Each structure stands twice: as structure tokens, then as C-alpha cells.
Amino acid sequence: MARDITVSGLGGEYMDTATVVAWHVQPGEAVRAGDLLATVETAKAATDIEAPCDGVLSEVCAVVGEEVAAGSVLGRLDDGTADTVPEADVSATPSNSSQPTHSDVSAGSERSAGRHDRVVASPLARRVARDRGIDLATVPGTGPNGRIKLRDVEGLAGGDPPRSATAVRPRPTSARADASIVLIHGLGATPSIWHQILPTLGQTAARVERLTLPGHGDGVATERMDFESLLDAMRSQLGGRDLDGVHLVGHSLGGAVALALADERPALARSLTLIAPAGLGPEIDGAFLAGFARATRPDSLRPWLERLVADPECLPAGLAEAALQARGAEPAGENLRRLIDSLFPDGTQAFDLRSALHRVRVPARLVWGRRDRIIPWRHALAAPGAVAMHLLPETGHLPQIEAPDLVAALIQQTVAAALAGP
Amino acid sequence: MAKLRYAEALNRALREEMQRDPLVFLFGEDIGSYGGVFKVTRGLMDEFGAARVRDTPISEQTLTAMAVSAAMAGSRPVLEIMYADFMPLTLDALINQASIYEYIWADQVRMPFVLRTQGGGGAGAGAQHSKSLDSLVAHIPGLKAVAPATPWDAYGLLKSAIRDPGPVIFLEHKLLYNMRDEVPDGEETVPLGRARLVREGTDVSIIASSRMVHESLLAADRLAGEGIAAEVVDLRSLRPLDLDTLLGSVARTHHAVVVNEGWRFCGYAAEVSATLMDHAFDDLDAPVARVTMPDLPIPYSEPLERAVLPGPDEIVAAVRRTVA
Amino acid sequence: MMTNGPSVDEQIEIYRKMVVVRRMEEALGALHKQGGTRGPIHRCDGQEAVGVGATAMLRSSDQVTSTHRGHAHYIGKGLDVHRVVAEILGKETGYCRGRAGHMLVASAADGLVGGNAIVGAGIPAATGIALSLQLQGRDDVAMCLFGDGAAQTGICHESMNIAALWKLPVIFLLEHNQYGLTVHHAAQSSVADLSVRAAGYAMPAEIVDGNDSVAVYIAAANAVERARSGGGPTLIEAKTYRLEGFSTSDMGGYQDEAEIALWRARDPLTVARARLAGEIDTEVLDGLEADAAQVVDDAFAAALADPPPEFELHPASAAYSGGA
To answer: Does the residue C134 lie in any domain?
Structure first.
């Protein structure tokens, strides 16, 4: 029977179209499983398409230069077995003699001509197929226009189980003692940014750890200053913490780091509290970034620090002096400028973690000041429904300083929700 | 349990609410000594006097604006607009006045009034006395809109509408006034914003309101003979729409047919259909189908009128296409 | 049943409010030129005697409906200058939290419900309020301030007929400023004096000098007294003149310069001050004017510094009763 050669899942999460660059096999040629069949190019990179099984290339549906949607059929490979209709399909279909079979559909002009780039299926059939790992391109549709309906996918066995079924759940536990809270500060800050909420958090968790972003206040010129280098440093500071898991809390850039860590290591994060995080939209206050990084004296730093909060009164006296001291001598400023240049070129957040937020399966919470002038609180609206959202009135970019009691309470609630389990 | 006609159920609700609350008063054309052209207010002027049950001049624009402002001043007016076809005359009061004040005036005022009207075709009343204008009123934020299909709901919804703190447009149907069915013996209300599952089924959800509920039930009977189990949902409230009941039904049947007696383009059925697309896309196994009037004025002659009004034939055909 | 004129103290208060309104209009005009206002502003310079004089004898429980040109009505009915200015500037501290803007200001607590930018809509609104007041047995009255443009609408006719028919406690105060937007009254009406129409409703009517606050006061007080005592509605036609064009976006050119000069010479503030000059010292009047100007300056300073509102969704927008 004919096996579809598809481009689904080959280009990563972000690919939605690809262009055929080359066919390496001619129709009629025999191939072995794993042989190179074709090369397609996505917005990100060229990808090689390999033969899914032994067989003969029986049909080319997308020619060189053609742009195809993710999931569409590039061509077909005859594996030498007889055509069959899945058993479940027969039982679920009304005994209608004109019912199209799979071979009817592929032999007809519809798929190979006008609509070959798209599988026609109902939203429900698509959802069920996704959940069960069924490749819809292999399913004959019995609805109007050959539409694949629920009855066509019901009872079919799928391939790989989908991501949601394997999503890591927090381990059930009731012991407070093994809950560790990890705090990650933001750009140009230091762990002292958490000072006001530490006492409260200490009552919640056995350990509260404050991580330090690389190049921040350590007086060392850091060779690489980009997002990956931040993650590397956090990975090494966290070590093999996946065994117990931690409750991740991140502020601003630290929020983005926490989210990225939780996304790449689902076992690590038992809960996630993101305070005014970066990574959820393109806007960021470019003037602040430039002025903040450029400042070498308290007088030039102070106005930028005041922009961080809704009410400058809440900033401790002498903060500008202390911040410069903590920043230390050069190359701290240079580190900061390089990091900003990498992460926020031209005053824009050049990285996007919105899809990561949608993959989070542990209790997660967003806390944002409605008067945040650095990153607009509206970025919070990118969150999926399962993420709790707290928009604090009369609060700027530093909720942990402007509303410490509330922020501490919200972190406690996130931790408690994770401990309570799903 | 008492059996009352739809018009009698409405009459009973009005009487009980007038007895309960002295702020309730009725006004409209021919509602007083004549008792209303559909006899919904029969006997009420005798019981409550000509001040609280008022015959009015033919002045729909002003009467509607007066209902809005009298409600704002503390009364609970119930205005009768004789035909839904006259609703275009009421629209400034509804769109530019009633719908804006609660929000624009920052919650300083409330407007607890009810505008009762009746619409629908099938009585040979012609192009200016037969329309269903559900989408016209349901489109307006700040207003609620209900369209009861049974005497029970006519009674219970009218009581809730009168007690509601905001404006409610109450859409009756001229062919239902004589329908006789059960109403509760004691005082009972039907909450606004709650649909009713009239008939359970597994294969398709037929979503309807007012007279179309009964047409949908006839269609469901015929479909059962073909082995198709249709569920029938009576919306009862057009706005707010009972999303939970709709989504619950579609989650079971995965197929939806929306039936509305009004026009198709930008019509009420289109809104329900889009809402299902918004909220239940991944539950749908087929496109949502609409059964409506064609986009035409309602003609007078019986075969012509029958041809444009949706009925069981059109509903059955739409269901067959949907579950195919 | 003729009311005496206002006492000297009342005249002083009327004059003070007229000066407040004029200074407010001038400040708004200046702010508009600097780009400090949003949307058009409809100034009432030259018409202050009507809005302030007609409302001076009202209680806070009496209900006034206004127009798109209502600043004198707002201040006359006792609204706070700062909160009016804050509303015009779209601030959280405004009467309607910035949602209404200058044409739709309302203060339910002060009986001002409210500005209305649909020309004529305030007429049935006041009529409906009067019906509610009558039904509730309250001795409060409704007053509708409206213009010669609004007098040409169908709802004006409907409302006056109903008000006279039911002897409703409402005063129709026609603020005749000669222009409906850019078109002179002579091109809009078949009669020069609109008050003659009252005869068609068997409603008492009179014409007063709208630039003389005392004359307006006396006519309004008599009508209010008639309405309170069950005598029904009155139409008062106050002849006045719009000195500053339709709105801040008006290009002008259609008002005759000689006509403007004639009315400027009879500025209502000049008329009122001349009348008071015989009763009290010039220094007292100068001090009163300075105080009024200070009140306006303070109101603008405070309102300009007030916070803007933040957007929130409102329950009035609800389309669904459940679910998302």
C-alpha cells in the first residue's frame, strides 16, 4: 500500500510552511528505510526527508520550488503490501456502497491536484488524531468532499503518544520540608532584589535559594552574554535538582529564564511564578535599557530606577549608590550592554517564550504591575487559561518591592497548589 | 398542574407582578380597555386601574424612550409594542439611550423595564406584521433578550424579566398565544440566561428558540425514524446566551444545526454558529448549519409565506447534511 | 398663581453661576486651541441665563434632562465644577469616570440625567420621568431643556401630546438659540415662535427674554409650580443666541456679524449685572466675579492633574450567561 511522505513534525514547533528544494529520488526508484528522499527548506533551516520504510517512490505530489503546509503530503512510497482499509473504519461507516476507500481517494484527482496540500478533516477528527498520534494523511475520509470525520479515526491505533499524555505532573507529596523555592532575579539586578519577601517565603519552604545571573556583580568579564549563556549558568547552579523538583520564581529577565528552564526540563519545575517576565511580547522600554546600562553615577542611574516603580517613594534611600556598588567596577557595565544588545536589540524583545508558557503543565502564576513602564502588563494576556494572572493596581515593574506581602502570598499559593497536586 | 394558554400565562405573570410590586405599570397601544390585540392584558385595567394599565397614543419612539426614563426614575414599566415589525421605531431609545447609561454614567442609574412585543410569520399578516427581529435586539449590549417557546417559560421568564434590574426585550410569538400547556401552580420564575434541553439525543444538537423549538421537535421525530437521534435545545434567552448548555450539548453530539425564524445574513443563527466555532471548534465533526428565513420580505399569499418560513422539512434536510 | 421674582440673594447666586459657566466655556475654548481637549466641545456662551435661571428654583430631587450643549444646565442644577471639568477632560474623577465626555454628563444624585447628544432625545426622557413621578405620587417635577432644532423632531410632538394628555409634571424649556447646527431657524420652522404649537396640545405656553435670567426664572418658577400642583406641562420659549458657534470644530461664516453684535450687546451676564448693580455695591460684584473665576481656575488645575481612568470590561457587555 502507499505510504505518505509528509513534512509533519520535521521542522520543529515554529514551522508552518516549507519549500521543496530537491528530490533525491525519481518516481519508480526503490529506496530503503532511512534513505534520503527529499530536502525541504523552512524559514529556519533546510531539512532532509528520509524514507519512512522500504519501498518504491510511487508519486511526487510537491515539485521542487513548491511551498507546502506543515503536515502535507510530499509524495507516496509503495511499500509493496496490499491496500487495506482499517477495520474500525468499516464498522464505523454506514453501509453505503459509494463510500470512498483510501485508494479511491488517492487515485482520484482531488488529492493529487487541487487539494493535495491539505488533509480535509473535521476539527474533532483532527483533535482525536492528534491525541492518539494518528497520521491523518493515512486515514480515508467518509464525510462530504472526503472529509475525515470522527467515525473515520475512532478505533484507529496511533503512533507515538502525544505530548499531553506524557506531560510531567508534580509528584504527590504533602511534606513542606522538601519544597525548595528558587528565585531568579532580572537584568542588572542582584539577589538582594528579593530581600523583602524572603522572611515570608522562609516559612513556606525548607530552602529558599537565590540564584545569580552570570555577569551580574561578580566583576568578571563574561565571554558570552546571551540567553543560552544565562540558561547554562542556571543549569549548573541548579545541578541535578530534577530529582526533587523546585518551585521556580523569576522576575523580569529572570522570569524568562525560569520559564525556559521549566519548558526544557518539565521534571525540574514543580510550580512557576513569573513576575513581570520578559519573553511574552516584543515591547520593552528601550530608553530605560540604554539609560540603565549607561549609568555610571548615582545621579544618572536614579531617574531610571524611579521609572521601575509606580511610586518612587517606595525605593529605599541610597538605592542608586548601592546598585552601582553592587554592579561593581567595569566590566559589569560592559557585560550588561552586551546582554542587552543580544536579548533586546533596538529596544525589542528578540526572543519569544509564549509557546513555552502554553506548554507549562504545573501550577503557574503571572504577577504584573498595571503601571509597569518597562514591560507592558498586557503581555500577560498571552497566557493560556490555566495560568493564574494577577494584575496589581498602582504597581510598577518591581512588585516584590512595591507589594511584597501580596507577592509573597502569591508565591505561597503557587507552591501550595503544586503540593496539593492536580 | 394548571394548563394555561401562552397568552393566559403571560397575563397571570403580569397580574402577579403588579400585585407584588406597586412600581410595576403597563402601557402600550390598545392594552387597556380592549385588553391588547392578543388579549395578553385582558382584565388588568379593571383590576389595577387606568393609571397603571394605560392605553397610549401611537407613539412608539416616545413610548420606548419613556419606558427607559421612567425606569430610571424608579418605576418598573412594562411596555407593549404591538408588533416586532414596529421595533425599528424604538431603536434610538434602545441603542442610544437604554444601552448606554449604566456603563457611560458609571453605574449611577438602573433601568428595570421590559419591552414586550410579538413577532413571527404564519398568520398571513404580511411583510410589515410578521417579522422575527431577534438579531436586531440581541445585538445591543446592555440589553437582555428572551423568547419563550412555552406557556411555562412565558410565565416564568416574564416574571424574571420584570424583576431584572436592567432592560429586557421580551419576544413573544403570535402563533404561540393559543398554545395550551402546563404552568406551575405556585409562584415560580425561570431564570434569564438559561437554556432548556427539551429532548435528548446523541447525533446532532438542534438549537432553536420560540416557535422554532416546536418545528425542531417535529423534525426530531422524523429524524428518529431514520435512526438519527437529535437533541433539541431551547435557548429561551437570546442574550445572555447560555453557553454552558450549548457547549455541553455539542460536546455530546459533535454536530449542530441552528434554527431561527429571522433573516440569515448577519442573523441570530449566525451569531450562535460563530459562538460555537469560537468555543467548541475542536468538538465539531461538521460545519455548524443554519436554518433561517431566506433574505426576503415575508410575502402575503399562503403558499408563498409557507415557502419562506423554516419548518421541519428544512430542519431535517439540514440535519441530514450535517451528520452526513 | 404668579411667583414673585428671585430674591436678591437668589439673583446673586444665579449671577455667580453664570460667571462660572462663562469662565468655564472660555477656559475650554483656550484649552481646545492648545490641543488640550478631545472631540468637539459645544459652548453655551450667551445662553447662560436660560440654563442657570430655569434651574435655580429646582430641588435636587427634581429631574432635568439636558442637551449636547448643557454646561449651564449642569452648573445650574448644582453639579460640582471640578467634577464637571474632570468629566470633560476624560478623567477618573469626573461624574462618569471619563466615560461620558462633555455631551453626556449625568449626576443622578443631583437630578441631572443627563446630557444627551441625540438631538431631541431629552424630550421623551423628561416625559417618561414625569410619568414615573406622577405614578409614584411624588411632588417632584421633570424639566426638559431643549433647543429649537430638537423642537422639529417627531418625538417632540409625540411627547408634548402625551404630557398634555396625561397632565404630566414636566416643563418643556425651549432654549431658542436661533440655529440648528449651521441652519438658521427660519429655514427649519414654518412658524417664528415655536410656542404657538403648545395650543395644539392645549398646553399653556409663554415667550420670555432668554438673556434675562430673572425673566427666565419667573416663567420657569410658575411652570414648576403648575406642574407640582397637578396642573400639567408648560412650554416656555426662551429666546436667546448662540455666540460661539455650534462647536469647537465649527468653521463659522453663517452667522451674521451684525446679528452677533446685537446679541453681544445684550449679553446675559451684562443684563444680570446691571440689574444687581442697583441692589449691591460694585466692589461686591467684582469680588464675586473674581471668586467665580478662581473656582474655575482651581477646577481646571485639579482636573488636569487628576488621573485618567483605566479600562475595565463591564457587566453590561455580557453576552453569555456561563462559560467563557
So the answer is: yes
Tell me if chain C has a CB within 8 Å of the CB of B166.
Answer: yes
pLDDT at A174 over 70: no
**Is C312 contained in some domain?**
no
Chain B residues closer than 8 Å to C126 by CB: 69
Q: Do B41 and B29 contact (CB within 8 A), yes or no?
A: no
* Model pLDDT for residues B8-63, shown as the tens digit of each residue: 999 999 999 999 999 999 999 999 999 999 999 999 999 999 999 999 999 999 99
Which of B52, B93, B104 minimises the CB distance to C99?
B104
Is the domain of A49 the same as that of A95? Answer: no
Q: Is A132 on the interface with B (CB under 8 A)?
A: no
Residues A276 and A200 in one domain: yes
Is residue A385 within 8 angstroms of chain B, CB to CB?
Answer: no
Q: Flag whether residue B71 sits within 8 Å of chain C, measured between CB atoms.
A: yes
Residue of C nearest to B56 (CA): C162
Closest in C97, C159, C321 to B106, CB measured: C97
CA-based Rg of chain B, rounded to a whole angstrom?
19
State whether C314 and B103 contact (CB < 8 Å): yes
Distances (CA, A) of B145 to B24, B113, B281, B310: 19, 12, 26, 21
Which of residues A114, A143, A166 is at a domain's end? A166
pLDDT score, position A331: 65
Which of B62, A246, B304, B101 shows the shortest CA–CA distance to C170? B62
- The answer to whether the beta carbons of residues A345 and A395 sit under 8 Å apart is no
Give the domain extent around A22.
Answer: 1-82
Whole-number Å distance between alpha carbons of A363 and A356: 14
Measured between beta carbons, the chain B residues lying within 8 angstroms of C108 are 105, 108-109
Interatomic CA distance for residues C53 and C6, integer angstroms? 9
In the numeric block, the cell 414625569 is attached to: C130
Lowest-confidence segment of A63-77, A325-339, A343-357, B256-270 by average pLDDT: A325-339
CB contact under 8 A, B286 and A125: no
